[in-house]
Amino acid sequence: MEIEVKSYYLDKLFSTIQCSKQIKKHIDFFAWMQNSVSEFIPHDALLAVWGNFKDGADNAKLQYDVASNVDGFNTKAMMGASKEVNQCLAYLYELWLDNNRHFFVLNSFGTSEFDCKFRMIFPDLPQELNSLLVYGISDLRGGNDCLYVFFSKYNKFQTKSSVMDFIMPHIDHSLRKIQHLGPIKTLSKIRLSLNMSCLTERELEVIEWIKAGKTNQEAAIILSITQNTVKSHLKRIYQKLNVTKRAQAVALLAKH
């Protein structure tokens, strides 16, 4: 029976890794992480951060990418408080170095130094995230380090060391080959030329991501809203821009 269980477990693990080859967009990565990888690394949010940590928390130029099903915990929120987030991640980075660059777990981190800083940035998540796992990868050619921080609602983060070392290279490769959900150009010039002052702040955010080529589902994940809400915003945007289709709106914005 034990042999059968191990065989079944390995088959599912290999199947999960095989599915990573189909990832082409950020939404594919998110679905893969939540529907497949979570069986082996149970988590509610993944924060990837990379860059030069050695410049210190105040000067480090770090980039973030988030795959999360926790409301309010997303890439936009990270970029909005980048200095404070840098300090939190610098602390985790030092712990990773102290652990000889091996992955580590913080269970029930409510009393840790990390928690004190983290809760100040995200005060609305007191009961959402209680444990984390940090896995680091060094990019010797690029001269940067990358930390993958898995957050869980459970007080104890459980996973197998062998699984982490086996599956993490595929997670790292999958995230590197898709577009980073980083900041995009503002619409200041477009607002002037198209008189877009009639659009709300949320409508401007939606149209920015649509112009960047995101699907409704991707925009919903980025902005932490539902797809129906994105559709409602787009409908009002079309009316205000006097267009009837998504392509027309994108084409109109592209001209400016």
Secondary structure: elements and pairs:
Elements: H1 2-19, H2 26-35, E1 45-51, E2 62-68, H3 75-80, H4 82-98, E3 104-106, H5 113-121, E4 131-139, E5 144-152, H6 161-176, H7 188-194, H8 201-211, H9 216-223, H10 227-241, H11 246-254
Antiparallel strand pairs: 1-2, 1-5, 3-4, 4-5
Helix pairs in contact: 4-5, 8-10, 9-10
Kindly summarize this structure in a few lines.
Helix content is 49%, strand content 14%. By secondary structure, the chain is an alpha+beta fold. The radius of gyration is 20 Å and the shape is globular.
Structure description:
The protein has 256 residues and is of the alpha+beta class. The protein has two domains: 2-176, Beta-Lactamase; 188-254, Arc Repressor Mutant, subunit A, CATH 1.10.10. The chain contains eleven helices and five strands; from the N terminus they run ααββααβαββαααααα. It has helices at 2-19, 26-35, 75-80, 82-98, 113-121, 161-176, 188-194, 201-211, 216-223, 227-241, 246-254; strands at 45-51, 62-68, 104-106, 131-139, 144-152. It has a five-stranded antiparallel β-sheet with strand order 2-1-5-4-3, with helices on both faces.
